[in-house]
Amino acid sequence: MSINKDFEREIDRLFELQKKNVVRLRTSSVNDRIMKLKKLKEYIWANREKIQEVVYNDLRKLRKRFY
Fold it and tell me: Origin, by domain of life (predicted)?
């Protein structure tokens, strides 16, 4: 099986999981949403250096591709 097919299947699987989760998210309280956003912020802050490195490397690849 090709990598592209595996990738497409994984995207489809994740998309289906998101569709199933949408009702629960719509009915969540404001406090639940705030807590999720705070957890996301904490994760991003704790992993900021790694995130910066990954974004830099990806953008560098794009730059090399187009220039």
Answer: Bacteria
